[in-house]
C-alpha cells in the first residue's frame, strides 16, 4: 500500500521487516531482517518476550545503513518478538514502524503469554491476563496450576474468557504498594488431550500510585485523580455521534510515543491514515486509544469528532508541555480510564483488560474450579 500521490509513503513501504507483522508459528531458522530500500535506518529496537520477561535482542545496522541483522543465529522458540524501527527514506522523510511476530511452539505443548511484564510497576487497575497459544479443554486443571497472590493479602479470583484466556483480579482496584506474585506451574499439566504445559515460572509486579481518570463525553473533559485527589481537569474530544466512544472502565495496556493509526485496520473504510499519532495509550484490543491530537486542535473541550478514541490537545511530533504530553508523562500501564455519558454500549469485559466492568459475582462465576 503506497502513500498516494504527493503524500508520504506508508511505513511498510519505507521499512521492510521479516518475518511479516503478526506472523505466527515462525520457525527458529527463519532470519530476522530489517531493511530500507533507500535512505537509512536511524534506530532499531527488538525485544523478545518469554514467560513475562522482556530481553533486548542485540543486533547491528550495516555499514551502508540499509540493513539490520541480529547477532543471534536463531530465533527463540515460544517467544513473542516486538520490532520498533525509525528510518529516513531517500528524501529524508522520517517513518516509524511497529511490528510483532510469535515463534513456533513445539507440538504437544502449550504456553501462556502473561500480562503485565515481570518486575513492572503498574497502575491500580492492572488485571493479570494469560493468553494461551492453544485452546484449553481442561480449564480447571490449568486454573489450579496458576497461583496469584498479593502482599498485603487480598482475595484474587480467576475468570475464563473462552478457551484460551484466563484473567485474575481482586474485587476492587489494587491498593498502591501491593506486590503481586504469579506462579505458573504449567509444565506437564495436560491442557487438552495430548497437549501439555511448558512453563514452570514465577514472576511479580508492583502496584504504583493510584490514578483513575474520568472522561465525561458530554462535558468534553477528563478529571484526572491521583490517590483520590483531583490532579487536573483536561479538555478532550471523544467519539463523534456516528462513532461514539465506548462507555465503561478501560485499562491502559500499552504506551507508544508515536504510532500509526489507519481506519482500515479497525473496521472502518479509508476515513483516516495518520502516520505519527503522538502520546498513544492503548485501551482496547479493538483499537480504542487515548492519544494526542494535533490535526483538530480546536476540538478538545468543545466537540466530539473522533472515531471512538479520546483525544487530548497536542502538537505534531508530540509536545511535553501539551495536555497530551503532560498526561502521558504521568501515566502508567495499568491506569484506569473510565468513560461516561456516551451513547455507545459499555466496553466488553474481554476487549482489552475490561474485566472491571463485571460485577464481582459475575467475575467469580467465570472460574472453572467449582
Short description:
The chain has 370 residues and is mainly beta. The radius of gyration is 21 Å and the shape is globular.
The helix count comes to: 4
User: For the residues shown, what is the average pLDDT?
Assistant: 93
Shape: globular
| Lateral strand order in the biggest sheet | 24-29-21-22-23-28-27-26-25
Q: DSSP strand (E) fraction?
A: 35-45%
Helix residue percentage: under 10%
Structural class: mainly beta
Write down how many β-strands occur, each being a DSSP E stretch of 2 or more residues.
Answer: 29
Specify the biggest β-sheet. 9 strands, mixed
Distance, first to last CA: 51 Å
Radius of gyration: 21 Å
**Poorly predicted regions:** 1-5
Could you characterize what this model shows?
The chain has 370 residues and is mainly beta. It is built from 4 helices and 29 strands. Strands 24-29-21-22-23-28-27-26-25 form a 9-stranded mixed β-sheet. The chain has a 5-stranded mixed β-sheet with strand order 2-9-8-4-5. Strand 22 and strand 23 form a beta hairpin. The longest helix has 7 residues, at 323-329. The protein starts with 10 loop residues before the first helix and ends in a 6-residue tail after the last helix. The relative contact order is 0.13. The model is unreliable at 1-5 (pLDDT under 50).
Amino acid at each position: 500500500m503506497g502513500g498516494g500521490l504527493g503524500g508520504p509513503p506508508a511505513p511498510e513501504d519505507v521499512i521492510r521487516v521479516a518475518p511479516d507483522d503478526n506472523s505466527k508459528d515462525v520457525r527458529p531458522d527463519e532470519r530476522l531482517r530489517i531493511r530500507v530500500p533507500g535512505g537509512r535506518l536511524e534506530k532499531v529496537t527488538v525485544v523478545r518476550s518469554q514467560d513475562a520477561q522482556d530481553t533486548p535482542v542485540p543486533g547491528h545496522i550495516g555499514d551502508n545503513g540499509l540493513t539490520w541483522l541480529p547477532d543471534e543465529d536463531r530465533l527463540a522458540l515460544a517467544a513473542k518478538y516486538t520490532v520498533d524501527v525509525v528510518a529516513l527514506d531517500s528524501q529524508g522523510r522520517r517513518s516509524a514502524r511497529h511490528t510483532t511476530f510469535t515463534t513456533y511452539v513445539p507440538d504437544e505443548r502449550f504456553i501462556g503469554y502473561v500480562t503485565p511484564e515481570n518486575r513492572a510497576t503498574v497502575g491500580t487497575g492492572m488485571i493479570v491476563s494469560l493468553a494461551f497459544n492453544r485452546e484449553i479443554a481442561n480449564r480447571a486443571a490449568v486454573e489450579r496450576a496458576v497461583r496469584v497472590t498479593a502482599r498485603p493479602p487480598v482475595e484474587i479470583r480467576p475468570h475464563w474468557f473462552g478457551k484460551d484466556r484466563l484473567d485474575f483480579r481482586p474485587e476492587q482496584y489494587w491498593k498502591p504498594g501491593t506486590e503481586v506474585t504469579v506462579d505458573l506451574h504449567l509444565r506437564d499439566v495436560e491442557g487438552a488431550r495430548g497437549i501439555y504445559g511448558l512453563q514452570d515460572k514465577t514472576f511479580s509486579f508492583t502496584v504504583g500510585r493510584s490514578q483513575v481518570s474520568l472522561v465525561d463525553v458530554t462535558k468534553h473533559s477528563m478529571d484526572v485523580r491521583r490517590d483520590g485527589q483531583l490532579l487536573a481537569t483536561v479538555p478532550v474530544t471523544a467519539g463523534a455521534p456516528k462513532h461514539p466512544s465506548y462507555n465503561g472502565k478501560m485499562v491502559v495496556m500499552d504506551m507508544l510515543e508515536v504510532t500509526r493509526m489507519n481506519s482500515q485496520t479497525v473496521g472502518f473504510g479509508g476515513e483516516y491514515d495518520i502516520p505519527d499519532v503522538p502520546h498513544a495509550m492503548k485501551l482496547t484490543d479493538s483499537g480504542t486509544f487515548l492519544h494526542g491530537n494535533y490535526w483538530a486542535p480546536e476540538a478538545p473541550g468543545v466537540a466530539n469528532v473522533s472515531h471512538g478514541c479520546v483525544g487530548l490537545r497536542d502538537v505534531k511530533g508530540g509536545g511535553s508541555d501539551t495536555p497530551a504530553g503532560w498526561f502521558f508523562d504521568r501515566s502508567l500501564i495499568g491506569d484506569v480510564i473510565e468513560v461516561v455519558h456516551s451513547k455507545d454500549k459499555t466496553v466488553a469485559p474481554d476487549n482489552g483488560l475490561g474485566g472491571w466492568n463485571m460485577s464481582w459475582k459475575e467475575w467469580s462465576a467465570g472460574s472453572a474450579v467449582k
